[in-house]
Amino acid sequence: MMKVEHGPEHTVIEFDDNRLLVEICGSHDRNLVAIEQGADVTIIRRGNLLQVQGEMASREQVAHVLEDLGARAAGGNHVEAAQVDAAIRLQPEQSAVNGDGSGRIAINTRKKTVEPRTEGQRDYVRALFEHDLVFGVGPAGTGKTYLAVAVGVSMMLEGHVDKLILSRPAVEAGERLGFLPGGMEEKIDPYLRPLYDSLHDLWPGSKLEKLREEGKIEIAPLAFMRGRTLRNAFVILDEAQNTTDMQMRMFLTRLGENSRMVVTGDPTQIDLPGGVRSGLKEAMRVLRKVKGIEFVYLTADDVVRHKLVTRIINAYAEIDAKR
């Protein structure tokens, strides 16, 4: 597919299929620009040849990235910005090998194939597939909720579970909930909207609504979980930093036969009233050594939003450390 020749000052990469190269480079070579910025190199394109200038280690990294993207394109898959970012961040030799030997972890959903884009995300996804109870802890933008929803959709499609249940505490509303217009469902809808958005990105809308009507997909406030036993289900509790200690205990003890549970949250963004203990923080302290429970800690390095988000998180972390 491609031939690589490393020289003392630059590396030349030749593609035998120009159409494949066009797909790798992207519209107006935007994928090449992303690779240049991510690997700190300069790439010059001439026909079916790419000349890469920079440090040898960086040039070797670019060769691995292009090989990974080429394998994707050769398989008939469109090369998008997310895949370019993942290829840059995750070196092939460090990636967990998928069943097809491609070196990627693939989460198959109805609308797209989702892949972890950082080493931390890779460890998180692996934990979601291997453990019955997983805590995904980290800052905003690290994919905690999205990846959990993707794995839940995948496991439901493969028949491992019968239901997908997503929940969030509506703690931000507090006593103000009564002042919002509409009935109860309309009042709490804004607090559950991020979960709807994730699902709509992974499942066709018409099919999604049918599954909700059948009760196979459920999105509900945390308070609605009380008194239930959740069997044959993939259950996600999002924004868990805003649960109280008693709410967290209630939720965790809902785990029933053949079910999996994921708890996600960011301990730095707690909206509980002053003096109220966060259920997530308490669970991190009490359950960290309990056998069968997996804690995965994501960091600013795992943020996959705008690059400024990583810098913002690091700036606030530095201030918090000083305080």
Q: What's this, in brief?
A:
The protein has helices at residues 18-25, 30-39, 56-74, 81-89, 119-130, 144-157, 184-202, 205-213, 245-252, 279-286, 307-322; strands at residues 2-6, 10-15, 42-46, 49-53, 107-108, 113-114, 133-137, 163-168, 217-221, 233-237, 260-265, 293-297. It has 323 residues and is α/β, with parallel strands linked by helices.
Describe the structure.
41% of the residues lie in helices and 18% in strands. Strands 9-8-10-11-7-12 form a 6-stranded parallel beta sheet. A 4-stranded antiparallel beta sheet has the order 1-2-4-3. It has a two-stranded antiparallel ribbon with strand order 5-6. Strand 5 and strand 6 (113-114) form a beta hairpin. The longest helix is centred in the first third of the chain and has 19 residues, at 56-74. The protein has helices at 18-25, 30-39, 56-74, 81-89, 119-130, 144-157, 184-202, 205-213, 245-252, 279-286, 307-322, and strands at 2-6, 10-15, 42-46, 49-53, 107-108, 113-114, 133-137, 163-168, 217-221, 233-237, 260-265, 293-297.
